[in-house]
Backbone:
């Protein structure tokens, strides 16, 4: 058990979030160890996506802090968080339909300086120069290489989700935040997403996974956190968390339990 | 590692190929089936060919056609400047006229101060346009959509007011811009001026096309799609937005400088809100999504008043009707006409002429599909 001696990749400490005077998250604390997957489940409006928004610095905290590899993220802007090696997938696939898969996945390597951006080049150029390209590797890993030049809008939702995951992975050398990778994906195609996710886990990628389907999350995480109304109900072993009465109650309601 | 991945991927991702067989084959299939190529290509080629033909016509045609060509090219550059912001980076602004005015007045003031080198004037105009563009982007950091539009409207009126004051102080009849000479050679009017501005247009077009392929273009594209999503994917929204405003300002200012050269002076009355509206009309008429559409719209909107004046007036005279109502109220009627075109385009064909052409192309394509026996074989379903 060397893991316990290591610095946690991500530590969220007593985070409170308010949006427009409404309390969204209250006293959220958890940590994710390197190579582990933390799953977060909860009904709609529980604050799952807000947690990811806090980590990726899109939403400010009222209280508490987020530590990445032991260093507080503080008031970094979203693209600076990305620069640290935190990748994030998006809940919605409504964006970037005009962009090619490769461009999208390469976004992660886009440097936010004029010179850096001008030198930004696709993986073919890099290959010609014999330089490694993380975008190409990631596409290869997820079996997306032959989609490289296709606009995202032409692909099925499942593939779009995979591309988004690839984009997050291309950036997220140290941490990948997955926001509902199966939303909008039909039953038959879910296997694709599950397979991709297990590949990521085999590689030892540290992941925070959110999904509206508790079964999917439970089957694909090392630690599970159940939430409701902006608070943590329970955190720990997936099986135990799902079996605990308060979690079941939050999902099924009083009458049915 | 790669081998392993290749071995693994087909069984590991069973649903992926099945889910995507159709879209994956479609471009190739379309390419095999019809000589028309990918969707949108014939429409683009048609627009490029029409622009080239028009460009050559203006270059070798009568002085009158040449004059129209000059105006078309100059407004084409301005439209490209606006396209960069509206079509390229997904922002909205109604201050194109102001930026053209900035270019024109920079040229006028420099000439007034004794600096007459064309390249110096052009570069300084671009730099001033860049700087003011950067400043005009600051409201864009806080506002979006309608509010941003209003902020840019404010800029338009501020510039109008400043240029009026400057003009009253320096030279009430307009700031004189000297005839354009490069190394002692005269480029001030006629075909020589036309070819010069055309070269500048082509250079700017090529630069924009090149830029779109770099990370800058990718960042702007991401910005256009969604600012929040772009930020989450690691795009520095603030920076790239400001650069979009600045670059757009620089290009539009260059167009303003050239326009001042073409009329020989900088007059505040030439750069009103009407110019800004007509610039936006150009974008939406041509198809705001593409550079070529912006150019196409610029040519149509710029040439339209000339066409009304020289051709339609003849029709009216032949029919025994008076056309004075138009010639006497030209600027007002044109403004109304452009606004009407703007509204009609937005209502009925938001993709503009390019959208119409693509629809036409799709129709022709479907004819091809049905008639080609080879194609029928190729389609599996």
Residues:
């Amino acid at each position: 058990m060397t893991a316990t001696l290591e610095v946690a990749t991500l530590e969220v400490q007593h985070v409170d979030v308010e949006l427009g005077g409404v309390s969204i998250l209250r006293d959220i604390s958890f940590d994710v160890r390197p190579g582990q997957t933390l799953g977060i489940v909860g009904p709609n409006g529980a604050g799952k996506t807000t947690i990811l928004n806090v980590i990726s610095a899109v939403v400010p905290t009222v209280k508490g802090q987020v530590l990445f590899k032991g260093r507080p993220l503080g008031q970094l802007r979203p693209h600076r968080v990305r620069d640290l090696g935190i990748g994030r997938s998006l809940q919605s696939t409504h964006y970037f339909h005009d962009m090619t898969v490769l461009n999208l996945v390469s976004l992660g390597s886009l440097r936010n300086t004029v010179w850096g951006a001008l030198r930004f080049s696709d993986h073919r150029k890099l290959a010609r120069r014999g330089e490694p390209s993380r975008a190409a590797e990631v596409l290869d890993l997820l079996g997306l290489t032959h989609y490289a030049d296709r606009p995202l809008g032409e692909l099925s939702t499942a593939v779009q989700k995979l591309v988004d995951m690839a984009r997050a992975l291309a950036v997220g050398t140290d941490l990948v935040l997955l926001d509902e990778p199966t939303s909008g994906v039909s039953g038959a195609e879910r296997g694709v997403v599950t397979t991709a996710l297990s590949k990521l886990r085999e590689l030892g990628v540290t992941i925070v996974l959110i999904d509206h389907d508790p079964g999917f999350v439970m089957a694909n995480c090392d630690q599970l956190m159940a939430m409701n109304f902006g608070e943590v109900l329970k955190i720990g072993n997936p099986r135990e968390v799902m079996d605990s009465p308060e979690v079941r109650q939050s999902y099924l309601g009083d009458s049915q339990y | 590692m790669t081998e392993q991945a290749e071995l693994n991927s087909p069984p590991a991702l069973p649903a992926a190929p099945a889910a995507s067989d159709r879209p994956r084959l479609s471009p190739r299939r379309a390419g095999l089936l019809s000589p028309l190529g990918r969707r949108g290509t014939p429409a683009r080629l048609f627009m490029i060919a029409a622009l080239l033909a028009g460009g050559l016509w203006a270059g070798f045609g009568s002085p009158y056609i040449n004059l129209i060509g000059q105006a078309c090219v100059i407004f084409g550059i301005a439209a490209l400047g606006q396209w960069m912001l509206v079509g390229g980076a997904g922002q909205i602004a109604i201050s194109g006229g102001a930026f053209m005015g900035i270019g024109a007045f920079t040229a006028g003031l420099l000439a007034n101060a004794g600096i007459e080198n064309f390249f110096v004037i052009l570069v300084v105009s671009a730099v001033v346009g860049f700087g003011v563009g950067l400043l005009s982007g600051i409201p864009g950091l806080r506002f979006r959509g309608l509010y941003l539009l209003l902020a840019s409207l404010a800029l338009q009126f501020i510039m109008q007011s400043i240029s009026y004051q400057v003009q009253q102080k320096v030279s009430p009849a307009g700031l004189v811009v000297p005839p354009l000479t490069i190394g002692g050679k005269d480029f001030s009017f006629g075909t020589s001026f036309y070819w010069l501005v055309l070269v500048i247009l082509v250079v700017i077009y090529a630069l924009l096309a090149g830029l779109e392929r770099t990370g800058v273009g990718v960042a702007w594209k991401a910005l256009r799609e969604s600012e929040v999503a772009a930020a989450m994917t690691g795009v520095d929204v603030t920076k790239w937005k400001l650069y979009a405003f600045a670059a757009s300002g620089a290009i539009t200012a260059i167009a303003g400088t050239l326009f001042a050269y073409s009329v020989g002076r900088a007059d505040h009355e030439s750069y009103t809100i009407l110019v800004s509206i007509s610039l936006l009309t150009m974008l939406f008429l041509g198809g705001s999504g593409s550079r070529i559409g912006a150019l196409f719209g610029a040519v149509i909107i710029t040439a339209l008043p000339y066409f009304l004046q020289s051709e339609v007036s003849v029709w009216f005279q032949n029919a025994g009707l008076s056309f004075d109502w138009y010639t006497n109220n030209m600027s007002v009627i044109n403004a109304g006409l452009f606004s009407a075109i703007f509204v009609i385009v937005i209502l009925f064909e938001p993709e503009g002429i390019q959208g119409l052409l693509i629809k036409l192309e799709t129709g022709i394509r479907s004819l091809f599909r049905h008639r080609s026996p080879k194609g029928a074989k190729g389609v599996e379903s």
